[in-house]
Design goal:
With 392 residues, this protein is α/β, with parallel strands linked by helices. 41% of the residues lie in helices and 17% in strands. The strands form four sheets. It has a seven-stranded mixed sheet, sandwiched between helices. The chain has a four-stranded antiparallel sheet with strand order 11-12-15-14. Bound molecules: pyridoxal-5'-phosphate.
Length: 392
């Protein structure tokens, strides 16, 4: 299947207003998602929030089946939460660490995850160890393999970082984790929606994702996958009457499924919208999405490399839809603002988001232009022309 660009753009109202290359920030949603969210908010306003949730129960429940199809797992292995960070946190803070335990991670690790490692290792005496990258810039699977011993209690990897097109070899890391029997937590926040993700093929035990980025869902939505065999071993860091049941004055029972990581009050319109967004993504086929996104991004990298004063910064043997670059004599923020004045959306990524990698490369800030399948070749050309004009 190939992407029908005309239909993709027709389905995306925002295309008429902006040249949007901030899909790794938040994608423009398709009309189908927008309509579903607005319809539910409208229903809530007309008949009441609880009553609307009851009436829309099938649409709310659909998100679990949609997410299970997307990640190729079972619906009871899915929790729907507020965002990717909270999804990741619920998994990470469920694990128990002791002095001497080791957590292995990579150079591209995201700030929120690393802050959590610091907090937990400072509390417990466990250690964080950063596996070096190989010559392509991805995590070195060989170095990871050499680091394994009986004290490694977690392998935690960011699949695609916030600051570049690198795609870490998640499945090769999964093979190391499986062979050693070590829990494996994958932050797939930036990858889900722009490529096929199969949790069994990757071999991860836990995976976090967000709604608003490449899935094109509503803001304030996220997903956690936890492998069924792992569920019972993970006691969530907080519980409520949705995650557990108060069965006697002195006793509670935790839910058996992944919804033990959710909480009772939730963004129903967002949940419905996320289900619609996932179904919409599946309708395009993620292989076709990947092919188009990777192709557009490579084309953009080639054009940027030809612009005087522009340096493309993406690492990796495999590179996805996130394109990062720096320009001589201008900060990333200046470039972003200049483009915003021309109705072109990009974002910037600073060292505090991915400190290990940015410091190792001596980078303070990069401009991030992240493409999606609904972006056109004409937009890529216009973007490069405007950038050239800005740099003159
Ligand atoms: C690698 C990575 N993980 C997690 C997150 C956090 O996602 P959310 O804002 O949905 O919590 C981001 C956001 O940019 C990210 O880039």
């Amino acid at each position: 299947m190939t992407i029908d660009l005309e239909r993709a753009r027709r389905d995306t109202p925002g295309c008429e207003h902006v040249l949007h290359l901030n899909n790794a920030g938040a994608s423009l949603p398709p009309r189908q998602v927008l309509d579903a969210v607005i319809a539910h908010l409208d229903l809530e306003a007309r008949i009441g929030g609880y009553e609307a949730a009851e009436r829309a129960q099938a649409a709310v429940e659909r998100v679990y089946d949609a997410a299970a199809s997307l990640l190729r797992c079972a619906r009871d292995e899915i929790a729907v939460v507020e965002n990717a960070t909270r999804a990741w946190d619920m998994a990470f803070y469920s694990l128990r660490f002791e002095r001497g335990d080791r957590i292995l991670t990579g150079m591209a690790e995201y700030a929120s995850n690393y802050i959590a490692y610091l907090q937990v290792t400072q509390r417990t005496g466990a250690a964080i160890e950063v596996v070096p990258s190989d010559e392509t810039g991805q995590i070195s699977v060989e170095a990871l393999r050499r680091s394994i011993d009986g004290r490694v209690k977690l392998i935690a990897l960011t699949h695609v970082p916030t600051n570049g097109g690198l795609v870490n070899p998640a499945a090769a890391v999964g093979r190391v984790a499986r062979e050693a029997g070590i829990p494996y937590l994958l932050d797939a926040c930036q990858s889900v929606g722009q490529m096929p993700i199969d949790v069994a093929a990757i071999g991860c035990d836990m995976l976090s994702a967000t709604g608003r980025k490449y899935l094109r869902g509503p803001r304030g939505t996220g997903l956690l996958y936890v492998r069924r065999a792992m569920l019972e071993r993970l006691e969530p860091p907080f519980l409520d009457l949705h995650a557990a049941t108060w069965v006697a004055r002195d006793r509670f029972e935790i839910r058996a499924d992944a919804r033990r990581f959710e909480n009772w009050e939730t963004y129903y319109a967002g949940k419905i919208g996320l289900g619609v967004a996932i179904d919409y993504a599946l309708g395009w086929e993620l292989c076709a999405v990947r092919e188009r996104v990777y192709g557009l991004a490579e084309g953009l990298r080639a054009r940027l490399s030809a612009l005087p004063g522009v340096t493309v910064r993406d690492l990796g043997a495999e590179r996805c839809g996130i394109v990062t670059f720096t320009v001589a004599r201008k900060t990333g923020t200046e470039v972003q603002k200049g483009l915003a004045a021309r109705a072109i959306n990009v974002s910037t990524s600073s060292s505090s988001g991915t400190r290990l990698d940015m410091e190792a490369r001596g980078l303070a800030q990069v401009v991030r232009a992240s493409v999606h399948y609904y972006n056109s070749e004409e937009e890529i050309g216009r973007f490069c022309d405007e950038l050239r004009g800005l740099l003159r």
